[in-house]
Amino acid sequence: MELDWQDRAFHHHIATLIDAIDGSDFWTRITRVIERFVAFDNWVALVFRRDRAPLVCAESPMPDGTVDLLFRAYLEGMYLLDPFYLNASEKPRAGLITLAEVAPDNFRMTDYYQRYFKSNIIGDEVQFNLPVDGERTLIFSLGAKHHYTERDIALFAMFAPWVVALMKQRLASETFAEGVAEAVASDSAEAQSAAQQGQLSEAGFASRIEAVTQQSGRVALTAREIEVVRLSLSGFSTRAIAERLEISFETVRAHKKHIYAKLGVSSQSELFALFYEPLGRALV
């Protein structure tokens, strides 16, 4: 088989990644290799945890060196509406995951999309996923201001086997806030830290709703109503919610009517603000 200089250069880059697997600049290096073939604008490596705030491995720096307030808001609770997070929690699998695969039918109409995704990622996103166990998934996300082309997606899919393989090897060397050994083996210390910082802990979305209703003196929602709220805020239409929960369209409409009445809101935006405004000041 004949190899040209581009093939040789590519193999050289993969070799440098393998050599850097336990280094502090691993994630930066892997982005540099991929961006030689596909253009993207931001990246982040995280560990998604079921009903827990994600752990940050590394993220692309802000151009001016400041703290990304939108990303801070994401970690404090917005992640619960992220279609990639929901997919990793419900259907964890290794490989390439695209936005088109996981976004609900009304995703671009949600406040999450308008106030976070559109402002922070803007156009499109793909993720390379590696399930760690039943509760955690290591993800490597690439966001773009533009929509990825079919060629871009095809290249990402072609890269997925070696990217995920490198992620698997990297996991043993990863250091989060407290080190991967402690974080992956036991989340107790991280949970305590997150609670001290006012972040969501293991109870997740349901606990957030319960906390908001108790603090504001509103009527508590039922478990089914909480499901409807989360799906609705995530971008599922009334019909899609009905199909997902295997109930009738009219039953979902009735649930929404009861939810609005109990919480004293009259629109989807007010519902979003009720649960996310405390951490969403940076989104305004």
From TrEMBL:
Alphabetical keyword list: DNA-binding, Transcription, Transcription regulation
Transmembrane segments: none
Pfam families: GerE
Domain HTH luxR-type: 214-279
UniProt entry tagged with the keyword Transcription regulation: yes
PANTHER family in the cross-refs: DNA-BINDING TRANSCRIPTIONAL ACTIVATOR DEVR_DOSR
Protein name according to UniProt: HTH luxR-type domain-containing protein
